[in-house]
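Try it yourself: sequence plus flavin mononucleotide, in.
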Amino acid sequence: MTTVVNPSAPGGAARQAAGLPRLLPAAPEDLHAHLARYGPTPYQRRPGVLISAIEASGLTGRGGAAFPVYRKLAAVARARAGRKVAVANGAESEPASRKDELLLRVAPHLVLDGLQLAGEAVGATEAHLYLHAAAGPEILRALAERGRDRLRVTVTQAPPRFLAGQETALVNRLGGGPARPTFQPPRASERGLGGAPTLVQNVETLAHLALIARYGPRWFRAVGTDAEPGSMLVTIHQPGGTRVREAGIGTPLATLLGTGAEVQAWLIGGYHGAWLPLPDAVGLTLDNASLARFGAAAGAGVLAALPSDRCGLIETARVAGYLAAESAGQCGPCLNGLPRIAAGLAELAGPRPRRQTAADLERWAGLVTGRGACHHPDGTVRFVRSALTTFAPEIARHATGQCCASYHGATNRRPFLPLPGGWPTREEDWT
Ligand SMILES: Cc1cc2nc3c(=O)[nH]c(=O)nc-3n(C[C@H](O)[C@H](O)[C@H](O)COP(=O)(O)O)c2cc1C
Ligand code: SF4
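Structure, out:
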């Protein structure tokens, strides 16, 4: 485990550039410890300078889509409006992700610095913090400690739904409605909360932004690849348990996930991500340029190493059932198509599925792709299609009544990938 160097000590920033973690101190830091480590926030009252620094850093969003941060900052800064909004998205609605929860617990002031700095850069008149129910008391305590922030921060709890963290769902929820997505355009940066230009950034993105404001773009670029600079928090699920760590973009996946005989496949990018077969994927690295070769993306950094004694079809069917139930029920292809796909997968996961089921799944996947107001059907289809390819040998095994997770006639159905405790969730959880 790398130790965190105090960057406010002489030479500290330069030394810290070489090492990770950058974002995660060993223990939660209150305002006093935070200021001792980092000093006060720079760039105040110089908003254009910060946007240029963020452009030079190459920082992209860490909430899943990897969109260049400076472009959103510039769009909201440019907008002419009396009211502008900045939002820190800590919904962490992906059930397999734990990184935002940990960041908000150990480095809450870094996130709040980032929210204030980004808010100032775009000329925001109000700020919001949108939090998962699992967010600990540290972030609220940190808010209470900060007396001199320019923007007052309103806290809203995100409902425990997969789509609650999606940008338009967040805007609807902050506006007092249900956390359901709506069609884009307009983008939130053009017309968001109450029609005001709204900057929505993931909490980890804001923490990186706060560090770039202090140490500059060159420091940020000392880790990562030229095209995808910096580090990212990843949540890693392995046979031995779940952990969050910070990794340089471009790190070999094999060093994060392992490749031994006890691992049969990797899941990259969470439940809108993709299964990758081993050993084919063994040389890939944690960056989108590398992952694109397998149709995958890092997303919000959820990684899993599926143990050899679990069935990838059973795992995919469990998650697909959850994703189908999480449809916001507004678009026909999503509402009707995803349950059909989930039922097909449940059949494949069982003994002796019908021969045409895998082909039917491919056809149904084609029918829902690109047909929703949000990315949910497309993300679900990517996940399902990757399972059909990666677990093709397992589909053939099931056709003969066997399963890789079977021993002495019994199938190991112990769940591996996490789903919310109360799943399936209830209708009233939307609000
Ligand atoms: C289904 C779905 C769920 C999402 N959930 C989250 C989330 O929980 N937290 C988050 O920051 N972004 C989430 N996003 C991405 C947001 O829509 C948005 O792109 C992000 O908050 C922007 O911040 P960033 O550019 O800093 O990543 C989700 C997107 C989708 C399609
Ligand atoms: S595509 Fe699905 S999840 Fe997205 S808005 Fe439409 S019904 Fe809701």
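One thing you can check immediately is this: Residues 8 and 39 are 7 Å apart (CA to CA).
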